[in-house]
Design goal:
Layout (H helix, E strand, L loop, with lengths): L2 H14 L11 H6 L1 H10 L4 H18 L2 H5 L10 H6 L1 H4 L1 H7 L4 H6 L4 H4 L6
Helix pairs in contact: 1-3, 1-4
Length: about 130
């Protein structure tokens, strides 16, 4: 695929992607329009063949995600989405701040001194 065609396809996908204000800092649309978009645009302008192949694959993957290719191809029997009343009812368990409460070591982990992944970097001395 020519560079201009890849860039045009990427710009089109960037414009179509919505930004959800409720997910500030962790929204895929924000990421695609921000730092990821800048990186892809700089790689498209690169003359390295390996980088061009990488960019083409990335843009093709974004296009598949945007078109819900995999969602339509591999239909789920049950699709569990926590929005609306369901999301409000389970907000205390689903929000990011509450996830740390559930990330506690088990009795065996405490007994043998095993650390959780979230604790690995705390003792690290660089």
């Amino acid at each position: 695929m020519a560079r201009k065609a890849v860039l045009d396809t990427f710009k089109k996908l960037q414009k179509e992607w919505p930004i959800v204000d409720a997910r500030k800092g962790r929204d895929l649309g924000e990421f695609i329009k921000g730092s990821y978009g800048n990186k892809i645009e700089s790689l498209i302008k690169s003359s390295d063949k390996a980088q061009q192949t990488f960019v083409e694959a990335e843009v093709a993957a974004l296009k598949h995600i945007n078109e819900d290719k995999f969602r339509n191809e591999y239909k789920r029997e049950h699709d569990h989405i926590y929005t609306g009343d369901e999301g409000k009812r389970h907000f205390a368990k689903l929000n990011s701040a509450a996830q740390t409460e559930y990330n506690q070591p088990s009795f065996m982990d405490r007994l043998f001194g095993k650390k959780l992944p979230s604790q690995w970097s705390k003792d690290r001395k660089d």
